[in-house]
Amino acid sequence: MSQSDDVRAYLTAKYQKAGLIDKDGNKTLADTVEFDPYNYPSDGLISYCAQCQSDFESSRKTMAKAAKPVAEFEHSAACLWYDFFVRKVKLSYPNASIRRKN
Hints:
two-stranded parallel sheet
C-alpha cells in the first residue's frame, strides 16, 4: 500500500520544517543519533493517528448538519497528523471552527 502524493508532500514538508531532513530529502543527524528510517516519508508508510482520524470522521458527520460547523480534536499541533486533518476540515468547510476536546 503506498501513500498518496498529498500525504507524502505533507510529511516531507513537516520533516523539513522540523529539521529532520534537508531540502533534498536527505536525513540529518540530531544529537549524533540518526533517526529511524521508517519514520521518514520516502522510506515507508506512517500510519494516520487513530485519534485524529477518528475525531475528523466524527466531526465531519456533525459538520454536515450544522449551521456553524465546528471540528473538535483531542490532540494538539504536537501530533504529527493534527494539522493534516485540520487542513482537510478547512478544505471541506472553509468557515469551520477548530476546537480542542475537553
